[in-house]
Structures are given as structure tokens and as C-alpha cells.
From TrEMBL:
InterPro entries: Glyco_trans_20 (IPR001830). SUPFAM superfamilies: UDP-Glycosyltransferase/glycogen phosphorylase (SSF53756). GO terms for molecular function: alpha,alpha-trehalose-phosphate synthase (UDP-forming) activity. It comes from Tepidicaulis marinus. Coiled coil: none annotated. This is Alpha,alpha-trehalose-phosphate synthase. Pfam families: Glyco_transf_20. The lineage of its organism: Bacteria, Pseudomonadati, Pseudomonadota, Alphaproteobacteria, Hyphomicrobiales.
Length: 460
């Protein structure tokens, strides 16, 4: 049977009780095949110290190899090139790009260091699966070590931007060339595949050599969409425990019959949070009968607070919700309730189940798993309504959601009103379609299909 699986991602975790997102996605695959999970442990070495050798822990058949970053690596590779250049470019937020030569130099150096630490541990027949924008050149750095018999795939969790947006990055050609060291490139959507292929054909003199194969820089590779999903069964189960039922009942009682609208996001400028608050304000203005009858519950966990744009956003949101609550609220009703921290997954599942509307309105998003979690948590006989941004990758398949333009606050307010008034029959029908998408993109199928292609893809 197949070789070991080597997963490389910016952050490692544990395979035992992974908490959401990428960790859930890779840990089951690792447990199935056995292998290595390599990445950053989230620690920063003391000022002036080197990163040192990574620690190795064993969890059954999986070796977790995780080391620290130096302060300089953290600032220039992680906060710098990854999160102040690639992240905003991939999410069309060119106003947040800040480029410095040190950033890209460090990005290269860290990828090379990781490759030097990982390379000697690899064996012929291993499948190497690299995740996300922090690690685009890792494959090229591994190939430079002339390791034999490796198949390497890369999956991008964030959107791949159109060519003229990518070209804002001074090193765009180097980045794309380094992707050509992989045998398989996976994107979230067909739209991302098209953006990548446009770049390769228009800017790098590439040519198609099959429906999903492209040649450039003297190498061929396979390019496909693998839309990621959630562990649907596990998420649904979380809403059915006795504890969850009690929580759901308590939440409903506390809302006194008001319709709860739920938003759950990392506190990130790609998620369209100020626009969402203003759309909610428009709902209250344009449809005054909703005043006192709806509550927007926003859970927004702060991330990357060392990047200025993120701390500014938090202040803006606190100011906005204060202003809206001050203008519309009364002694018995607080229109917006926001919680700026992480919430246990079981509580999230109950929150989704207790909410009439899931409001998922990123300005741009690779996929967006919250949309899928909200759908999975609904009661199929009396489900809530998903309002989803057209610019989330999820919208490519979840066409039975109420799709909205997240820049258009009036359209979002109208969608909220439509959702509040939607008949049970229509809700049931839309939910059935959305659950079908959830099942088709279940995370187990996602990782199995990526690995199945990686295993057979021809190597140029
Ligand atoms: P993210 O940008 O993090 O992921 P998303 O897909 O929504 O976005 O995943 C977030 C996960 O974290 C969800 O499982 C959500 O429930 C959880 N979460 C969010 N806020 C939370 C909170 N306050 N407390 C607890 N849990 C919280 C990136 C890309 C996405 C892509 C995923 C997976 O940006 O587009 O869908 O990777 O590929």
C-alpha cells in the first residue's frame, strides 16, 4: 500500500483532539497512514537566540516535529511576508499590503530552514502534502536537496488572486515558479484554478498539456479544485447531546423569542465585519418592525494582533457596535452582542442551532467553513437560513444560500429581511440542497480525493 504521509503546515497541532479547520483536516489522514506533521509550534525563541532543533513527539503512528521561530523570523516571515503581503494580496486588500525586502528574504530563509530540517527525515515513496501560503517555496527547497521518489502536493487554503492582483507582489514570478516544484496543486474553487492558469499562460509563457495539466518553467503539474468541507457527522452530533440541547434551550429563552442572527469569524479584515454591522443597522432602519425582535450575536476571536490593521479593526468594531446599541437599544434589548474570544466548539454548535440566520459575509474567503458548520447544525425540519457572501469560495457550490454582495449593505439588509420572513417550506428545501453540498465536500472526502490524485499523478 501507499507510503507515509508527510504534512507540513504553518502551525502543528495534536492528532488527538484537533480543534477545527486545518487540524481536523490533516490529523485523520495522518492517523490513517502514519507519518510526520511538521511545522511551527507557535513559540518565539528568546530575543537573539536561534530557533534551535525542533521537538519531536510521538502520537501512535504520527511523529509531530515542531520548532520555534526566532523573533526576526516571526516578524519578517510570519507577520511580514505571510500576513502583510500574501494574506492581503490573496484577499484583494491591497490597502493593507506593506512590502519590505527583509520580509521576502526571511520568507525564503525560513522555508529553506524547514526544508533542511525535514529533508533528511524523508524516505522514498513518501507523499508530501504542504499547506497554505506560508509555505509556497517549501517544495522547491526540498527538490533542491535531490531527494528521490517523493510525490509532493500543495493545497492553498486562501483564494488565488487574479494575475494583475498577484503582480502587486514584487516576487510574483519567483513564487509561481516555485509552485512548479510540486506534482499537484489544489485550490478551493474552480475560480482559483482559473486565476492560477491565467497567470501561468499569460505571464509565464505556459501551455496547457491536458484538461487540468499545465506546463511552464520546464515542468508539468496537475491543477485541480478540491473544495474543503467539515466533518459533517461530528458537527451534527455536537448539536444533539443532552448538554447541547440544554444550551440551545437556554439560549432561546434568553432571547425571549427574538430571532438570533449569528456571525462567527476570526477578527480579520477579510471577513467584512464593519460592513455586516452596518447592514444590520440598515435592517433596523429600513424595517423598523424588526426593532426589538432581532439580535445579532457576533463571535470574533482576535488573531494577529501584532499587525496594526487587526488592532484597528477591533477598535472600529467596538466603536460601531457601541454606536448602534446606543442609537437603537433600550432597557430590555441590546441589538448587537459581540464576544471577542474563542468559544468551545460544542458551544458554537449550539449557538448555530439556536440561530434563525447564519450571516457569513466575508469580502473574500478561500472557502469559509463557518457557512458549512451553520448548515450542519440546523434541524432539517425547521432550519434557519444561511446568508452567504458571493466572494466566499463556499458560494461556488452553496448556491441555495441567500447569496449577497458583502460590499452592498442595503442588499444585505434586504436579505436579512427576506430570511426573517422565509416560509418553512422554502427553508427546508434550501437546507436540503445545502446539506447535499456539505455531504459532497465532507472533509474525509476532501483529503481522500487530494491524496488519491497525488498518488497517481504523473511526474514530469
Ligand atoms: P479561516 O480564515 O480561519 O480559514 P474558516 O474557514 O471560517 O476561516 O474557519 C474558521 C474555523 O475556526 C471554523 O471552524 C470556525 O468555527 C472556527 N472559529 C472561528 N471563530 C471562532 C471562535 N471565536 N471560537 C471558536 N472557533 C472559531 C482558512 C481560510 C478559509 C478556509 C479554511 C480551511 O481563510 O477560507 O475555509 O482555511 O481551508
Amino acid at each position: 500500500m501507499n507510503g507515509r504521509l508527510i504534512c507540513v503546515s504553518n502551525r502543528t497541532g495534536t492528532t488527538k483532539a484537533p480543534s477545527g479547520g486545518l487540524a481536523v483536516a490533516v490529523s485523520a489522514a495522518l492517523r490513517q497512514r502514519g507519518g510526520i506533521w511538521f511545522g511551527w509550534n507557535g513559540q518565539i525563541a528568546e530575543e537573539g537566540a536561534s530557533a534551535g532543533e525542533p521537538d519531536i513527539t510521538h502520537e501512535e503512528n504520527v511523529e509531530i516535529i515542531a520548532g520555534a521561530l526566532t523573533r526576526q523570523e516571526y516578524e519578517n516571515y510570519y507577520l511580514g511576508f505571510s500576513n502583510s503581503v500574501l494574506w492581503p494580496v490573496c484577499h484583494h486588500r491591497l490597502d493593507h499590503v506593506s512590502f519590505r525586502r527583509d520580509y521576502v528574504d526571511e520568507y525564503r530563509r525560513v522555508n529553506r530552514r524547514f526544508a533542511h530540517q525535514l529533508g533528511p527525515r524523508l524516505k522514498e515513496g513518501d507523499l508530501v502534502w504542504v499547506h497554505d501560503y506560508h509555505l509556497m517555496p517549501l517544495g522547491a527547497e526540498l527538490r533542491a536537496q535531490r531527494l528521490e521518489g517523493l510525490r509532493m502536493g500543495f493545497f492553498l487554503h486562501v483564494p488565488f488572486p487574479p494575475p494583475d492582483t498577484l503582480m502587486v507582489v514584487p516576487d510574483h514570478q519567483w513564487l509561481v515558479r516555485s509552485l512548479f516544484s510540486y506534482d499537484l496543486l489544489g485550490f478551493q474553487t474552480q475560480g482559483d484554478c482559473m486565476n492560477f492558469l491565467h497567470y501561468v499562460l499569460e505571464q509565464a509563457g505556459g501551455e496547457m498539456v491536458g484538461d487540468s495539466r499545465v506546463k511552464a518553467f520546464g515542468r508539468e503539474l496537475e491543477v485541480r479544485a478540491f473544495p474543503i468541507g467539515i466533518d459533517v457527522g461530528a458537527f451534527r452530533e455536537m448539536t444533539r447531546t443532552a448538554e447541547a440541547r440544554r444550551t440551545i434551550r437556554r439560549m432561546r429563552q434568553r432571547n425571549l423569542g427574538r430571532a438570533q442572527i449569528i456571525g462567527v469569524d476570526r477578527l480579520d479584515y477579510s471577513k467584512g465585519l464593519p460592513e455586516r454591522y452596518r447592514a444590520f443597522q440598515k435592517l433596523l432602519e429600513q424595517y423598523p418592525e424588526t426593532q426589538g425582535r432581532v439580535v445579532l450575536m457576533q463571535i470574533a476571536q482576535p488573531t494577529r494582533e501584532a499587525v496594526e490593521a487587526y488592532s484597528d479593526l477591533r477598535q472600529e468594531l467596538e466603536w460601531l457596535s457601541g454606536a448602534i446599541n446606543g442609537a437603537f437599544g433600550d432597557f430590555e434589548w441590546t441589538p448587537i452582542r459581540s464576544i471577542h474570544r474563542s468559544v468551545p466548539r460544542s458551544t458554537l454548535a449550539a449557538l448555530f442551532a439556536a440561530s434563525r440566520i447564519g450571516l457569513v459575509t466575508p469580502l473574500r474567503d478561500g472557502m469559509n467553513l463557518v457557512a458549512k458548520e451553520y448548515v450542519a447544525a440546523q434541524d432539517p425540519e425547521d432550519p434557519g437560513v444561511l446568508i452567504l457572501s458571493r466572494f466566499a469560495g463556499a458560494a461556488e457550490m452553496m448556491t441555495s444560500a441567500l447569496l449577497v454582495n458583502p460590499y452592498n449593505e442595503e442588499e444585505m439588509a434586504n436579505a436579512l429581511q427576506t430570511a426573517l420572513q422565509m416560509s418553512q417550506d422554502e427553508r427546508v428545501e434550501r437546507h436540503r440542497d445545502l446539506m447535499r453540498v456539505n455531504e459532497e465536500t465532507d472533509v474525509a472526502k476532501w483529503r481522500a480525493s487530494f491524496l488519491a490524485v497525488l498518488e497517481v499523478v504523473s511526474q514530469s
